[in-house]
Amino acid sequence: MKTKIIISIVAVLSTFALIFWVLERNKTKNAEITAIVSSGNLGAIAVNTEKAAKTDISIDFSSNGTFAPNQDLTLATENAGRITRILVDEGSRVSKGQLLARIDADLLNVDVETAKANLLSAARDLERYESSFKTGGVTQQQLDNARLNVQITKSRLQSANLKSADANITAPISGIINKRFVEQGSYVSVGNQLFEIVDVSRLKLKVTANENQVVNLKVGNPVQIKSNVFPGIAFSGKIVFIAPKADNSLNFPVEVEVSNTKDADLKAGMYGTALFDFPEQAASLSVPRTAFVGSINSNKVFILDGTKSRERTVTAGRVFGERVEVIDGLKEGDVVITSGQINLVDGTEVVKIK
Question: Which residues form the Multidrug resistance protein MdtA-like C-terminal permuted SH3 domain (predicted)?
Answer without folding.
Answer: 287-340
